[in-house]
Design goal:
The protein is of the alpha+beta class and about 70 residues long. The protein has one domain. The protein is about 30% helix and about 35% strand. Strands 2-1-3-4 form a 4-stranded antiparallel sheet. A hairpin with a 2-residue loop joins strand 3 and strand 4. The chain is globular, with a radius of gyration of 11 Å.
């Protein structure tokens, strides 16, 4: 996982409420958004959905990560 994403997920999962975080990722031709704990589960800890498919991460209304070029 890339540095910035790794920091955000680590903080969310171990030092904050992970249900406050939402992950958007490319799902075929669309963008799906799910709560972070659900993303970790469906991605099987990033083996099924790699970090390269993540388009953004937000905590509430605050965007913490947005993939460049979008």
């Amino acid at each position: 996982m890339k540095g910035r994403l790794e920091e955000i997920f680590s903080r969310a999962l171990y030092a904050d409420d992970p249900f406050l975080y939402f992950v958007s990722y490319r799902d075929f031709e669309s963008i799906a958004e799910v709560p972070l704990p659900e993303f970790v589960s469906i991605s099987e800890n990033f083996s099924v959905i790699p970090a390269s498919r993540i388009t953004s991460v937000r905590r509430g209304d605050e965007v913490l990560y947005k993939k460049s070029g979008l």
